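cron nightly-structures :: item 1 of 1
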Amino acid sequence: MIEVERLSKRFGDVQAVDNVSFSVREGEIFGFLGPNGAGKTTTINILTGLARPDAGRINIAGIACTGNGRDTQSLFGIVPDESNLYPELTGFDNLSFCAALYGLGKAERINRAKKLLKFLDLNEAANRKFGGYSKGMKRKLTIAAGIIHQPQSLFLDEPTTGIDVNSARQIRRLIGDLRRAPLFS
């Protein structure tokens, strides 16, 4: 699914990514670990087309996309380390908006948003403003926004940082559940 060979990226004097190579098979859960400042987020940004590499080769789902990751953006769900959802919108409205960005029709947006809210035990909070959610609830809704378009791959940047142990377990269980069976049919 993903092949990365000798990927490098520099920001001025800082070598953010240095000759990184790895591959991820379809259906595989892959952890990209390292200390703060190791280049994990920069690598994700390169793979998802948000940054360009200085060197290296990237092949995603059979598409050579080095230097133009935008060709494969619809294949991915991206969950950044900080929520990118709107605090003034409800949970339901945030999911509907994200689905619209991926071109889903109104009926499909509503169906998927409702299904995700139920799946993540967020039904009771669906019509509350996102800004009032707990950290764990925010994390789960941000993941829901990343998968509402049913991507082939999901990038989670520090998915359990700053949340309680129970919410972290729920998120790890969610990742396993998503791998085993598609949520939408």
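cron nightly-structures :: done
The chain has a mean pLDDT of 88.
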